[in-house]
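FAQ: What does the model actually see?

It sees only this:
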Amino acid sequence: MSWQTYVDDHLMCDIDGQRLTAAAIVGHDGSVWAQSECFPQYKPEEISAIMKDFDEPGSLAPTGLYLGGTKYMVIQGEPGAVIRGKKGSAGVTVKKTNLALIFGIYEEPMTAGQCNMVVERLGDYLFDQGGGAREPRVRRTTTGCPGP
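And it is asked to produce this:
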């Protein structure tokens, strides 16, 4: 399975009739492995700041999380594992795996909880697989989205 398939089938899937606005899988070095059509073009320093927050939780809180020039207020995540950001009725979830960052961007009517579920489920799966070194078989989940 290609990285693009993970984005197309596992991140950009329908959940209760809703889907993410954009999604991507990005290497820790900022290189794009796969992305949806509308994923914002980001600056290297934005990825560097995100990586720093995973190493030093809370470092993004004073300045906010920037992605593609959009500023998100950092809200409670999981230190070292998940960063969540909010901007009005939209937001972003970033899950760190051994080798990559999984990004999901949403806007209402999709909820933060739905975005978190999609991004973190794939991220947890890839983390358990050693960062995505092996390619899994696809199974269906109760959400209707393919499960890893």
